[in-house]
Amino acid sequence: EKSIYILGIESSCDDTSAAVICNGKVLSNVIANQEVHAQYGGVVPELASRAHQQNIVPVVQQALHQANITKNDLSAIAFTKGPGLMGSLLVGTSFAKSLALGLQIPLIDVNHMQAHILAHFIDNETPKPPFPFICLTISGGHTQIVKITDYFSMEILGETIDDAVGEAFDKSAKILGLPYPGGPLIDKYAQLGNPKAFPFSKPQVADLNFSFSGLKTAILYFLQKEQQKNQNFISENLNDICASIQFTIIEILMDKLKKAVKQTGIKHIAIAGGVSANSEIRKSLQNAEKHLGWKTYIPKFEYTTDNAAMIAITGYLKFLNNNYADISTAVKARLKV
Ligand code: KG4
Ligand code: ZN
């Protein structure tokens, strides 16, 4: 049996990543994080493109090196076509095209949001969900409940009408004076706090859709009011505030997932995307498995936030179907699953 080596390249936001997958197994998954954005409280697109430009070649070289192969062993190159930041996408896409052209091997375009979901199909890792399953995809740019009937047959059942969950975490963190990205920090402080300390009301949104912009405003007003009474309110209550914010967000997500299960009758439930790294959403799913009879699929930690292994596995699944991209393919900042 011939070994199929796929190089995956991810550059949609602020992480430059390259990975090599052999017959569905990850051989390497190198990620260069861009620290430059922390001081600005969010990703600065112009700076992200420049950092990708600096990182892309060394990151790919390292991925090949760690996989113990050379570029001549590659069967195809998969890259993120979108959605994402235009300038960031262009760096990975142009590099992938040039390399595929030079090596005379197929080029495969990958939808970043599909890839977050298809990370569940990396070999020898966590159990693979059977079709059909429901995936709650939660990242810095998206919040979706998706029904997956086959690898490339996906339907969005609900999504956010304003901010994404990751944004809700990051913007709340910013109000608390925490650096970007604040999601992981809220998670960390929340573990030491009381989730019922400060109740925040949940939004009323129809169907399987979400809204998070009201919560952000509610948190802002609450903190302003408390700080007028006590200047040190945030520092004295940081753990409880973080736990309360996180508790509210996770409840909003779980309520909609329960609704999706009821509506579809599907009890195979996966999570994906950067926010699926959150310890509380992971616990909540495990609880649902025990108490609600769901079968849940939680990605390995390193495949939750942006990474190229998920791009490479999606590329591999497309490669098996001879589903290649034309060399003239263009990036798309907006792209549906
Ligand atoms: O999927 P991702 O790496 O990038 C996008 O495609 O957006 O997701 C990044 C988001 C950020 O908003 C970050 O704060 C959030 O995922 N995040 C977390 C945690 N780890 C990452 N949010 C809450 N708890 C975490 N542990
Ligand atoms: Zn992502």
Task: Describe the protein in words.
The mean pLDDT is 96. Helix 1 packs parallel to helix 2 (86-103) and helix 4 packs parallel to helix 6. This protein is of the alpha/beta class and 337 residues long. Helices cover 42% and strands 19% of the residues. A hairpin with a 2-residue loop joins strand 2 and strand 3. It folds into two domains: 5-119 and 304-320, 2-Layer Sandwich (Nucleotidyltransferase, domain 5); 130-298, 2-Layer Sandwich (Nucleotidyltransferase, domain 5), CATH 3.30.420. The two termini are 32 Å apart. Strands 3-2-1-4-5 form a five-stranded mixed beta sheet, sandwiched between helices. Strands 8-7-6-9-10 form a five-stranded mixed beta sheet, with helices on both faces. The chain has helices at 45-67, 86-103, 112-118, 165-175, 183-190, 213-229, 233-264, 279-292, 309-320; strands at residues 5-10, 15-22, 25-33, 76-82, 107-111, 133-138, 143-150, 153-159, 268-272, 295-297. The protein contains nine helices and ten strands. The structure holds 5'-O-[(R)-(carboxyoxy)(hydroxy)phosphoryl]adenosine and zinc ion. The site of zinc ion has 6 residues, from helix 3.
